[in-house]
Design brief:
Largest sheet of chain C: 2 strands, antiparallel
Number of strands of chain C: 2
Largest sheet of chain B: 9 strands, mixed
Number of strands of chain B: 16
Oligomer: heterotrimer
Radius of gyration of chain B: 21 Å
CATH class of the largest domain in chain B: Alpha Beta
Strand order of the largest sheet of chain C: 1-2
Order of helices and strands of chain C: HHHHEEHHHHHHHH
Largest interface: A-C, 46 and 45 residues
Distance between the termini of chain C: 38 Å
Shape of chain C: globular
Distance between the termini of chain B: 44 Å
């Protein structure tokens, strides 16, 4: 059963998504809208890590592996099919399957902690190196060259299902992206309310105890990891629609950034990582328009400040603050 | 020799300028308050900044110079520089911003071919004129873009004969692993074969490779007469270091299509860099009065901060901007199609790099090419090839006949 | 035949480079469980120190071997005091902090020194094996990796400071009860790790050159090596470097540099799958 609080959170999130989808395209300039779509697509990625790390205790350094796989599969499949309709289920299935397989390899091998971090990081780096080295003519899947370092600039945007001639405009893609983010949030909330979700959280809290109580820790972790892969793949598809796919999707700097988003936003929350992601993305873009200060220096200083000043992450800190204020209000 | 009125005017434009240095406030007051927006998108940070910084400095300089001389159509130029931080995603974001928010009259930008291909479709879709001012692998056929740098028919075609004449027929190619390196190495192969030689092997390196030890052993095993490099970026400079450290400089010389394009020759010590030969459409050391005047002003303005303008990237940015400005003057408008039509009349400027003329059919340029050798961290011209047309792109692209084309041809090189 | 010798030398020098760039990280992670994502930038700072010093006319060996560890060790001490100290026991937070630190170092160095500092050429020239030439400096790096490992081993095993450090790492409370200040030990260890990284930067500078972004080329490899090595930081790092470095070089020779790196990464995954706590989680467990 979905409790009142969860129901409220889901309701608010979906409402916000619908409102954003309806209102923002009317008032925002096209460029802001396209940038917003990029941020939202990465928000889905941040959410996926926020779910598996914050609630499953799976510290994945390579969530970008699934993000990139989703994007690449979408690009390659839709170029080959000439229609994006069937590319989407394929681009969701592949990262999910890879996540399940990798999860099997790790969790059934009893790999945990930082060792798991290294395996996932290594996975995304392998994909990065591989995608990066496919510039030659011999690297083609069907009619789609993989493009190496360049990626696939001609990634086709979504079309109306079964009607490849009618491609969606940037503002329509924005609407879809926002709705996807809202739905992912709702899905994550709901998953956590199910028996499966509760067991996953229990495993995170104390793996040994959960196991002794008879739960199959390995299966639960693997399944949650696959859910994370699915969401990250969805993020990749959206990203491919507003930018295009290139090996940077797998890169060390993106892999690291996702972790930063989750940490800054607040680990153990679902909205926090999304907020952290959008905030940091906005900052990075803004930093690129400054000429006085090196953007790296600015971002670096802010991250260090964030760790020291808001160690729990933005969202939990803000919630605590509000709660304190409310309490003080009650007392007076 | 006939000097047209236009040429004379341009010469004056480049040579003078410092005399026009009225105080900034006065100029802007005189020019009115409705500036023409020009956007520059170049990496000022991250791994590609060795190329980006000279380009940005030259674009800044060109805009200031033009504003000092009265702006365009009585309006000042407002330059907006974006730093994509060597990140392709930011390239697409800033290009969208330039086109839809800033509504820029023209975008100058892109360094690697990857970044160009990332923003070219965006700028075309939003009808924003695009100048790409870098030497590259050729073949882009799109009426919305002007490529002002040199291409393989202009530089590789001069470099390879030099290598074969002076060093020997057979070469070993090391190249960056993306489309620039892939396509350029095909061109090198083509010209080496035409010269009666053989390419012993081609090795590709991703941009982040720093250890070339195994590659250097492989090259020694192949015993080439020369190595030709199309390596790109900061990490790849290690190749030249490790090559010198292995003591191979005396036995196997190196030529390159990229060395000096950034500041490779400054990063290397003289012992490591001396003797490497490159081909570009400009070197800072090019000896002519216009270049002397340009450098004097450039250094007077920037002082110690002036970046080294090694190969052509910075200078081509300066020329690209001036070509655009000249077209605006002739079109008497900043409207995209009017400016394109003006450029397609075959605008020609006398520049510090020699005469540069727009080739209407391909939107590339006819320019002077220099083969130069590195000595004590500077380049010395060895051979000069005046007025080289962009034959490679011209063999596949005719925008006069097919104005709606929009693709990058990979010139079919038989290997 | 000559070629085989050259390949063998390349393998050895590939392994040595991996040891050199990983040791600093190994000390910091192995002793303190701090994942220092700014490790690559410590290398970079070491490299800049070496090259700037040598550009000022300071003796080349002083610039490569002495100044980088001193300067970067000092920087490490400051970083520990200002930042890391607040975050002990919070492994994930230190990652965020050191990631920020790494960006700040890259940005700061770019602003201060720019990206066009002339490098130093490698000393020693080259020597011939048959008709092949090999850089003498490569062999010096091999020697340096051996000496460095010996020093780390000797300090830990033979000096009182090493004993205290190892004790503190095993059980900080017990050490504190015996009158040792864990804070001081941590501070010194971090500074020592930073100094090692700085020295590594100085050592590789003549081979790789220096750019503000050079650290990114090493951090992932060093990190993977150290973790694959497992709990015994010195032995683990050495064994992992040996395995991974050989795989890297052999595959680079057989195929391309890309597949060399891919082979290294696949090897790391296979090793961790078979030995979930790293190589020294199973073998050589009593080693350092």
């Amino acid at each position: 059963m979905v409790g009142f609080r969860t129901g409220l959170q889901i309701g608010v999130a979906l409402m916000a998504a619908v409102l954003a989808a309806v209102l923002l395209p009317r008032y925002l300039e096209l460029f802001t809208l396209i940038n917003a779509t990029v941020f939202v697509s990465m928000g889905v990625l941040a959410l996926s890590l926020g779910l598996i790390w914050g609630f499953g205790g799976i510290l994945c350094f390579g969530q970008t592996a699934f993000f990139g796989l989703g994007g690449y599969t979408y690009a390659v499949a839709s170029i080959n099919f000439g229609d994006t309709t069937w590319a989407i289920p394929l681009a969701l299935a592949l990262p999910t399957a890879v996540a399940a397989a990798l999860g099997y390899l790790m969790f059934y091998g009893r790999i945990s902690d930082v060792y798991m971090g290294v395996i996932t990081l290594t996975t995304t780096l392998i994909l990065f190196k591989f995608a990066n080295s496919t510039a030659g003519d011999q690297w083609k899947i069907g009619s789609s060259p993989l493009g190496g370092f360049n990626g696939i600039p001609g990634t086709p945007p979504l079309n109306v299902p079964f009607d490849p001639g009618t491609q969606l405009a940037p503002d329509q893609i924005f609407v879809i992206a926002v709705l996807c983010l809202g739905l992912c949030y709702a899905a994550a909330k709901l998953i956590l309310r199910t028996r499966f979700g509760r067991v996953s959280v229990a495993i995170k809290e104390n793996e040994l105890r959960a196991e002794l109580l008879g739960y199959d820790v390995r299966l639960h972790k693997m399944a949650l990891f696959a859910v994370g892969g699915f969401m990250a793949g969805l993020g990749g598809i959206l990203f491919a629609n507003c930018v295009f796919v290139s090996p940077t999707m797998f890169s060390l700097s993106y892999a690291g950034q996702v972790i930063i988003w989750v940490l800054v936003g607040g680990i153990g929350t679902l909205a926090g990582p999304v907020i952290g992601c959008i905030l940091i993305q906005t900052l990075t873009t803004y930093a690129g328009t400054l000429s006085m200060i090196d953007p790296n220096l600015l971002l670096g200083a802010l991250f260090m400040l964030a760790v020291v000043a808001v160690p729990k992450g933005l969202l939990p800190t803000a919630t605590n603050l509000l709660a304190k204020l409310a309490r003080r209000g009650d007392e007076s | 020799m006939t000097l047209s009125r236009r040429d004379a005017l341009n010469t004056v434009l480049f040579a003078a300028g410092s005399t026009l240095a009225a105080p900034a406030i006065m100029r802007h007051a005189a020019l009115g308050a409705d500036p023409i927006k020009v956007v520059g998108i170049h990496d000022a940070s991250g791994g590609l900044d060795i190329y980006g910084q000279p380009m940005i400095a030259c674009l800044d300089f060109a805009v200031d110079e033009l504003n000092a001389a009265g702006g365009l159509l009585g309006r000042p130029i407002q330059l907006i520089n974006y730093d994509p931080q060597s990140n392709i995603q930011l390239y697409t974001q800033f290009a969208t911003q330039a086109a839809t928010k800033d509504k820029a009259a023209v975008v100058h930008g892109g360094i690697t071919s990857a970044s160009r291909e990332a923003i070219r479709p965006i700028l075309r879709r939003f009808n924003t004129l695009f100048f790409y001012n870098t030497q590259y692998e050729g073949g882009v056929c799109d009426r919305n873009i002007f490529c002002t740098g040199s291409t393989p028919a202009q530089n590789v075609n001069k470099l390879v004969p030099y290598v074969q004449k002076h060093w020997g027929k057979n070469v070993y190619i090391v190249a960056a692993d993306y489309n620039y390196g892939q396509i350029t190495s095909k061109w090198i192969t083509k010209y080496v074969r035409e010269g009666g030689g053989q390419v012993l092997s081609v090795d590709f390196f991703p941009l982040d490779v720093t250890n070339f030890g195994p590659a250097i052993s492989k090259i020694q095993a192949a015993k080439p007469d020369a190595v030709i490099s199309a390596l790109v970026g900061g990490a790849h400079i290690s190749f030249y270091r490790q090559w010198a450290a292995a003591g191979l400089k005396k036995s196997i010389p190196i030529a390159s299509t990229t060395f000096g394009g950034g500041n490779e020759n400054i990063l290397l010590s003289p012992e490591e860099g001396d003797g490497i030969v490159s081909a570009f459409s400009y070197f800072q050391e090019v000896d002519n009065p216009l270049n002397k005047a340009f450098l004097e002003k450039f250094h007077a303005k920037l002082g110690a901060k002036a970046p080294y303008l090694g190969g052509e990237l910075g200078m081509r940015t300066y020329i690209g901007f001036n070509l655009w400005a000249e077209a605006v003057r002739r079109a008497k408008s900043i409207d995209r199609m009017e400016v394109i039509k003006a450029l397609e009349t075959g605008i020609s400027l006398n520049t510090p790099a020699g005469k540069t003329t727009i080739d209407a059919k391909t939107h590339h340029t006819t320019l002077d090419v220099f083969v130069a050798g590195c000595t004590n961290q500077a380049f010395r011209a060895l051979e000069t090839f005046p007025q080289q047309p962009p034959l490679d792109t011209a063999s596949v692209c005719d925008l006069a006949a097919h104005p709606n084309e929009n693709k990058q041809y990979e010139v079919d090189v038989k290997i | 035949m000559d070629y085989a010798v050259v390949v063998a030398l390349q393998i050895v020098s590939g392994v040595a480079t991996l040891v050199i760039v990983s040791l600093g990280l190994a000390v910091v992670f192995g002793m303190m469980r701090v994942i220092n994502l700014a490790h690559g930038e410590f290398l970079m700072l070491g490299g800049y120190t070496a090259i700037l010093a040598s550009g000022q006319g300071i003796n080349r060996w002083l610039s490569i071997l002495v100044l980088p560890p001193l300067v970067v060790g000092l920087i490490g001490a400051v970083v520990e005091r200002v930042l890391i100290r607040r975050l002990y026991g919070r492994m994930v937070d230190t990652m965020l902090a050191t990631w920020g630190l790494s960006l700040a170092f890259i940005g700061g160095v770019t602003m201060l020194f720019g990206n066009s500092v002339t490098g130093i050429s490698a000393p020693f020239g080259s020597f011939g094996i048959g008709r092949f030439h090999v850089a003498g400096y490569d062999m010096f790096l091999v020697l340096a990796s051996v000496v460095l490992s010996l020093i780390v081993w000797a300090v830990l095993k033979l000096t009182p400071a090493g004993l205290i450090a190892r004790g503190t790492m095993q059980n900080a409370e017990m050490a504190a009860a015996l009158g040792v200040s864990p804070e001081r030990v941590y501070a010194l260890t971090f500074a020592a790790g930073a100094a090692l990284s700085g020295l590594a930067g100085g050592l590789i500078a003549p081979v790789s050159g220096v750019l503000p972004t050079m650290g990114t080329a090493y951090i992932a490899k060093a990190f993977i090596t150290v973790i694959t090595g497992g709990a015994a930081m010195l032995t683990g790092t050495l064994v992992a470097s040996g395995l991974l470095g050989s795989v890297l070089t052999v595959f680079t020779f057989l195929t391309t540099p890309v597949f060399g790196e891919v082979a290294l990464l696949v090897m790391a995954i296979v090793l961790l799958r078979l030995l979930p706590r790293g190589i020294t989680g199973r073998f050589l467990r009593r080693a350092l």
